Amino acid sequence: MPIVTEWRGVLYGVRDVSSGGKRGVISSLYVCPRPECRRPTLVFFDATRYLGGPLGGSSYAERVGQLPRGSAQPMDDLPREIESDRLEAWSCYYSGDLRAAVIMGRAAVQRAVRKLEATGAGLKAEITSLRERGVITLELKKWADEVRIAGDDAAHPEELGEIDEDEAKESLEFMDEFLRHTVAMPERRRRREEAREAGSE
Question: What are the residue ranges of helices labelled H in the chain?
Fold first, then answer.
C-alpha cells in the first residue's frame, strides 16, 4: 500500500448483521507524504462494531480496497508476460481482491518455472523437477511452493477460509523473491556478460 500519513476524513455506512452487531464500510482519504507525489488515495475498510456503544464494545477494521488501485514497483529484467502477471497480482492485492492476488501470484511463478524449462504434470511436479536438476536451490523451491500452495488453496474455496491481507502479502513477497532470483537477476547478469564481450571485440 502507498505510504500514507495524512488523514483527511471518514465516512461510516452502517447496517445490521445477523450476529446482533453492526457492520459498515469506512472510507478514509489519505495523502501521500512524499513531496514528489502528494496524490490522494481513498482507502476502504470493512468495519464491524459490536453492541455496547462506541467505547463499550470490541471492533476491528480490515482494509478491503483503495482508489486508485495501488501498483508495485516494476521489476527490471523480467519478461513482459511474467511481469504482467506479477503486476496484476499486486494490483489485485492493493484493491482488496486477495483471492485473485494469490492466484495471479501463482500464475507468475508458473510462467517463470516454465521459462526455466521445467518438466512434469502440474506446478508441483514442475518445481520439483527444477530442484532435482539443480536449476534452483532448496530455498527457492520452498518459496515457489509457498506461492503454489496459496494459489491452489485460493482456487478451491470450499477447502479454505477467508484469505487475510497478511497471508496474501506474504505469498506475493515469496513470488517476488523467486522471480528476482531465478529470472530477473540471471537475465541482468547475461546482459552484462554480453556487454563485456561486445566491448572486448
Answer: 53-56, 80-95, 98-115, 123-132, 138-155, 165-179, 185-200
Work out the average pLDDT over 173-187: 94
Pairing of strands 59-67, 6-16: unpaired
Tell me the three cell numbers of residue 38: 502528494
The Cα 99–Cα 154 span in angstroms is 6
Phi, psi values for residue 5, rounded to 5° = -130, -20
- The alpha-carbon radius of gyration of the chain (Å, integer) is 21
Angle CA 111–139–127, to nearest 5: 35
Distance CA 194, CA 179 (A): 22
Yes or no: say if 130 and 118 are a contact pair by the CB < 8 Å rule: yes
Architecture of domain 80-200: Up-down Bundle (1.20)
Q: How confident is the model at residue 84 (pLDDT cuts 50, 70, 90)?
A: very high
Tens digits of per-residue pLDDT, 24-80? 667 777 777 777 777 777 777 776 543 344 434 444 556 666 666 667 788 888 999
Q: Give the DSSP letter of residue 157.
A: G
Q: Report domain extents, the chain.
A: 6-67, 80-200
What confidence tens digit (pLDDT) does each residue in 141-159 have? 999 999 999 988 887 766 5
